[in-house]
Specification:
four-stranded mixed beta sheet, alpha+beta, two-stranded antiparallel sheet
């Protein structure tokens, strides 16, 4: 399996994401949306960084259970109920990402959402990974 991260020089600098990821492998893992739910199904954390940490931890746990690692992530979509707050906290969220997932960034998008499935949720992450 290999993931080649492509960031063309003529595009804006890719900070915390890759513009494109070329994936070669034989197993695809599609990861369901993960919010800041604990093991009892309750949303934990009241701030975006707290919830982002838990949602990313949950996404990575699902990936690990399927046999993958953060470096296998090809695509992640972030759904945020307040994109302005997400942008304001981008450095802090980036630090959480690097702590939990490293510096191999997948192709990413942040999408504003009026409401997520879990009413108290501020952020949800889904994605897919390519494994050998």
């Amino acid at each position: 399996m290999s993931l080649e991260r492509v960031n063309p020089a003529r595009l804006s600098p890719a900070t915390g994401f890759s513009h494109a990821v070329v994936a070669t492998g034989s197993r695809l893992v599609f990861l369901a949306g993960q919010t800041a739910l604990d093991g009892d199904g309750k949303v934990v954390g009241t701030t975006l960084p707290e919830q982002f940490r838990t949602a990313l931890t949950n996404l990575l746990a699902a990936l690990a259970a399927a046999g993958g690692t953060p470096a296998d992530l090809a695509r992640v979509t972030v759904y945020a109920t307040d994109v302005g707050d997400y942008r304001k906290r981008a450095r802090e969220l980036g630090a959480i990402w690097r702590e939990l997932a490293g510096r191999d960034y997948p192709a990413m998008a942040v999408i504003g959402a009026v409401r997520l499935w879990d009413g108290e949720a501020l952020v949800e992450l889904d994605g897919f990974a390519v494994l050998e």
